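Run log // design_07
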């Protein structure tokens, strides 16, 4: 086989970004993808009800990063979309993140101002100067009653661990609002790509210098692919080393079992995502995709998410034990010449989408700044 400039394993955010950057810089790029489609977990398609659905769960783009925002705008038009989530708790429906309305509904209060909310929280929260784990993080913010109702069991269902067994950062992803703001995120840019993510990835990879090989497990053809300039690996880091001796134990990942129902009714629920934080059901949330972009169809499709141990790895499990194991793998990874580990699974980090774009762009910039004329153009776009 002839020499490949850039070999990329995985056609998700990290892989597609690096492929696009290197191809634009004149390099020949080969992308190897195990699945039968590009776009990684962002993959979306139209279903039998004509609704654009994401195969691997809803992907809500949000960022404060100008460079990332400009970058993604090169490959798609985007429409503003402020994501909102509601939760069914004690037969009531409340906003999440917790805000004034959440407290009023659950505790029959009449709070109106930020000061009143602050006072309520001060009376209920258990302060921790530095939360050591997810439980302390939530108790510190909202106290034990909301912890029990909205966070403890959702987290157990999601991670098969209670919050005290997870890094504080996992639960700190969800803020507390002292006002009526019911948006899930507060970033400056919150939007969805017109036409969907798959179409956007097609555009990213549509370059004469890029070849994409689908349905191909890199580890099956690895020996035929030893002549490359640089290799970027975006799969699970422990999988990369599984054929070597004396490696650390395997890392833990969580996967999701998506159970779809096509319904002969216009709507199933009043919002795109409804969380079920209680123990009464096994799923964590129900997503009704037609709400995204207010899609029209006489029917609807809903997806219940059950988080499970086995299956495609989606989430690294952030706790101390896994971080320790990951560091061992990282030592091995750092010793490899011209091989780079990029993205959520290869870095074992709970990246948001914009962080995944950012990391890939930064890596490219670090490796190629001097060589690539296009970089300057990109950063001033
Ligand atoms: N979480 C919770 N209750 C909720 C929503 C989230 O306890 O109703 C916790 C849970 O541990 C979850 C974490 O907050 O894993 C982060 O939530 P996020 O919505 O960011 O998770 P993702 O959308 O990435 O699955």
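design_07 sequence
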């Amino acid at each position: 086989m002839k020499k490949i400039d850039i070999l990329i394993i995985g056609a998700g955010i990290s892989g597609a970004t690096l492929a696009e950057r290197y191809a634009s810089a004149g390099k020949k790029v080969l992308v190897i993808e195990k699945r039968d489609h590009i776009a990684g977990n962002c993959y979306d398609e139209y279903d039998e009800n004509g609704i654009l659905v994401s195969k691997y769960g809803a992907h809500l783009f949000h960022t404060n990063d100008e460079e990332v925002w400009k970058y993604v705008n090169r490959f798609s038009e985007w429409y503003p979309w402020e994501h909102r989530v509601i939760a069914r708790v004690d037969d009531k429906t409340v906003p999440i993140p917790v805000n004034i309305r959440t407290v009023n509904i659950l505790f029959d209060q009449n709070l109106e101002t930020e000061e009143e909310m602050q006072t309520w929280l001060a009376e209920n929260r258990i302060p921790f100067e530095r939360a050591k784990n997810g439980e302390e993080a939530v108790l510190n913010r909202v106290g034990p009653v909301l912890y029990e109702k909205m966070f403890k069991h959702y987290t157990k269902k999601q991670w098969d661990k209670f919050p005290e067994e997870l890094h504080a950062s996992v639960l700190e992803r969800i803020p507390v609002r002292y006002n009526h703001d019911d948006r899930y995120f507060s970033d400056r840019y919150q939007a969805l790509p017109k036409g969907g993510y798959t179409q956007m990835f097609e555009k990213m990879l549509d370059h004469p210098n890029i070849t994409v090989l689908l349905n191909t497990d890199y580890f099956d053809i690895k020996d035929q692919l030893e002549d490359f300039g640089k290799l970027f690996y975006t799969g699970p880091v422990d999988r990369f080393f599984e054929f070597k001796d004396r490696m650390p134990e395997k890392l833990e990942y969580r996967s999701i079992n998506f159970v779809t129902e096509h319904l002969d009714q216009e709507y199933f629920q009043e919002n795109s995502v409804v969380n079920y934080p209680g123990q009464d059901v096994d799923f964590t949330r129900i997503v009704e995709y037609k709400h995204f972009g207010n899609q029209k169809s006489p029917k609807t499709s809903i997806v219940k998410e059950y988080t499970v141990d086995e299956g495609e790895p989606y989430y690294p499990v952030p706790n101390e034990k896994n971080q320790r194991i990951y560091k061992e793998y990282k030592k091995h990874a750092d010793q490899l010449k011209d091989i780079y580990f990029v993205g959520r699974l290869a870095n074992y980090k709970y990246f948001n989408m914009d962080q995944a774009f950012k990391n890939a762009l930064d890596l490219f910039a670090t490796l190629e700044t001097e060589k690539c004329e296009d970089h300057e153009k990109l950063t001033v776009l």
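The longest helix spans residues 144-159.
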